[in-house]
Amino acid sequence: MKYFIGIDLGGTNIKAGVVNENYEIIAKATTKTNCPRPAKEIADDMAKVSIEAAQNAGISIDDVEWIGIGTPGIADNINGTIPYSNNLGFENVPIRKYIQEHINKPVYVANDANAAAYGEFVAGAAKGAQDAVCITLGTGVGAGVIIDGKIFTGRNLAGTEIGHMVIEVDGPQCTCGRKGCFETFSSATGLVNMTKAAVAENPDSILAEYEKKDGHVSARHAFEAMRAGDKAGKAVVDKYIKYLAAGITNVINIFQPDILCIGGGVCNEGDPLLVPMKELVKKEVYTRMLDCNTEITVAKLGNDAGIIGAAFLGNS
Q: Which residues of 214-247 are buried (b: 16+ CB within 10 A; e: fewer)?
């Protein structure tokens, strides 16, 4: 049996997992990232959790084939560096060199969204596809694109920032500096912002009652209010689905993947989200007249996608 280590490097936690050749995580280890601090210190801790994960799996670090890292920001796998990561405060960090000072194994690095997409491609919802797009609807909108079985990164290694394509000119301000980005509408943050606006406009609605009861607005409230028959809740859900479908249609028109999978907590809403969204995409996609079109599905691996994808970067 062959073993690999995948590291999900985040702004809050460093998570390492030992993954076998059947794409199964057999042990994990984690520690706090404790940003901001020197990149060398963070890399030292990445090596430590890798060794700890191997010990938890009952193997030696010498039994591991390689280490893969999914990191926020831009990742240069050729040179083994992280040229830029705003979340971590990194700039031109030789991450491979730092890790290999502790562990003499090959080290691969990729953007975290690309690593998660590759995880879904090799072992999750996009398994068996040749071309795939994986979109995560979280605080922002992350995405990874697989073309002919390889991660597509584009010029400057910063390709597939799908969340920052504009779908409404002069729309809401986005953190990237543009206005009306897909992310401003279709992220969980975007859904919360839509819900807050609806609560303010409809103070007597069931939606507003949920906000008062919980003391805050949640991404779940609009769907819960819709199911309770609330017009304000339904209006938010309809708007959210409309923009989500528009963004997904754009992505399908550009890449025409075999499979497009979406992940994130909002996908737990199931059919009330997925059925109308798929119907809108079906009506609007450029290839709607063809019998064979992109399959839209929900991601399967959840928070493990990044670890599994990173672990198999040596094959990407």
A: eeebbbbbbbbbbeeebebbbbbbebbbebbbbb
